[in-house]
């Protein structure tokens, strides 16, 4: 078996073997999914020099998640040192994902939060002139209305927690239905986001995505970056509730994440969608892919 | 610091030090809360002989959770052997909790599910003639309607997953409001259960609890045991949707779990509730406490 390159580093220990256990049985990240994470893109050139894309933005979002959970996050400098140590040990050319994880720490013998990271290779460097990457998707209910998270901070809307079991189960349900990924929907008929991605919709020269807040969805750094670049290129951009039926009528529809960038959806619930290769190429460029 | 007695055992390794890390950074139980657990009561007599209450029922429920998650659970015999080994190493008289945990296992180097358990001391043996244990509680929305989980198995209703971060956050919110615990409610105005407990309500000689299914709540083994014993004692018992306003008008209201048994709620949202000490004593007896 040829293994995907993978690296693990733990705050206070540094880089360790990926086969070394790093978390005790009483760690609240394990026992209750009580913690948060953030993922950033890693680009490594042919000489083996790795760079993390927008690390500070991801550290800021991790700190926001930790704040919502009342977890005392180690300072950015401690994370940056750990990331530097990891990056120095990483030399696989191409695309990889850095995952920063923070748990509430041990319950039985409290010793502060547990902080660790992984870097995992995902693909060779992308070819900017290649065709846009595409997936198929299905819609699945998330079981709540579009305003469920208003005035209910304990529901942890917008927090990238380690409790992602429903996201994983929904992705398995998509595979069972013969699709690659999921767009979650509300009980009142609006689109949310994907299990590990933001949603982006084109309608003419307007780009739309779902608002945070009452919807509980997570702010997508990559959607924001695309919208910034698109506005400079003459697009209008808006965050607003998108009725599910509008998804099928979109001029183009993407799921968007830091690791894989924008991925064009070709069919939704087995219904073919419009795709626009020129637009998809522009959106990928706006995202830095 | 005098530490609470605590024991850890891992399938394939046996009893280990609680300070030994047991889970790798790529374990899906850690990275996504992708796994399940179950908790059983441990009663240890003054001579140090420990017994697990209804172990087979908890193994069955764990297997049901694993089935809903498509995780291939080790056979009951493997769990029983691990539990035996743990119990042989456990000798603290009084009450403790056995927590069985199962994760989907490693993502980077797949090697089957991760199975482990902990035993944690919680209290001296209860005094049957003592006053009933009481708590205060608040109602908090769970953000979904009472039928949210119908026909949506990917939402994992009724599955005791490791993704319990909202349960933990709701309990912290209760403390912020000066209360001990939580009764979750639906957006359409019904009571659900507690973050780590089932709900039981007395109305005259009728005992009520919330139905599983569309509500997403977990079947409570202790509520079921109480209802079985209560019916033999002449009570009527029913599972039905309970409007939130009915909670305040109850003749008595409990949160119920395997570890701590039934605990009487004395105030809900700072409003005093009726309590009935004779009834509470009977209910505790029905639960085996």
From TrEMBL, chains A, B:
Name this protein carries in UniProt: 4-amino-4-deoxychorismate lyase
Similarity section: Belongs to the class-IV pyridoxal-phosphate-dependent aminotransferase family.
Any one GO CC term of the record: cytosol
Coiled-coil region(s): none
Sorted UniProt keywords: Lyase
GO molecular function: lyase activity
Species of origin: Humibacillus xanthopallidus
Taxonomic placement: Bacteria, Bacillati, Actinomycetota, Actinomycetes, Micrococcales
Gene Ontology biological-process entries: carboxylic acid biosynthetic process
Keyword match Chaperone: no
InterPro entries: Aminotrans_IV (IPR001544), Aminotransferase-like (IPR036038), BCAT-like_C (IPR043132), BCAT-like_N (IPR043131), Class-IV_PLP-Dep_Aminotrnsfr (IPR050571)
